[in-house]
Amino acid sequence: FIVSPSGASMDSPPKLPRDRFYNSVKDLPTIFNRLQNEEDMEGRTLIILDDLGSEIKSGSSEEAIILKKLFNNGRHIGKPILDELTGEQEESGAISIMITAQKMSQLPRWIRHQLSHLAVFDMRNTKSELLTLYDEFFAVDKPVFNEIIDRVFSIPYNFIFLDCKKSKIYNG
After folding, report:
1. In terms of C-beta distances under 8 Å and separation of at least 24 residues, what long-range contacts does 22-27 make, across chains too?
2. Which of 47, 49, 71, 111 could form a disulfide with 107 if both were Cys (CB 3.0 to 4.6 A apart)?
3. Residue 110: which H helix or E strand, with range?
4. Chain-wide mean pLDDT for the chain?
5. CA separation for the pair 78, 72 (Å, rounded)
6. pLDDT tens string 70-112
7. 3-state secondary structure of 2
8. What kind and span of H or E run contains 73?
9. What number of other Cβ atoms are within 10 A of residue 98's Cβ?
10. DSSP 42
11. Are 35 and 95 in contact (CB under 8 A)?
């Protein structure tokens, strides 16, 4: 599934069935219901939340509840693939989420704390974003952090890739 306010206007949209495109976080209850109840929804599912930061921050309580279920319990949501003969589980019904945002601060803290990986592009012109990145994702002294930022972003279009679970930093 892809949830994107600009999805309908993409010149070359992702190769997904049209019924997998949605426009708003208000559509999350529909997606959640489909994952729970439709026949062809077995196995792993990827939900891409594209550029919905401001909508997520100001969303209703129903969308917040669904988002929390997806982020906190995604590995338990969905239907597993079962062997037709034995009924044994071949693959779980887990959900993965990819989320894009113009600013990290648009995402609530509870979402940022659930991230397993993070790709960060140059944000040196926004002091509050750098502070959020440092406070929430880097376990180094401030001078070391500043050196990492300066080295990585001295190359145009470069980025930092963080593996938040393993506390590893990669130069993109």
Report:
1. 24/52, 24/55, 25/49, 25/52, 25/55, 25/56, 25/59, 25/63, 25/67, 26/59, 26/60, 26/63, 27/3
2. 111
3. helix 109-112
4. 87
5. 13
6. 888 777 777 778 888 898 888 777 888 999 998 888 888 888 9
7. strand
8. helix 61-73
9. 11
10. B
11. yes
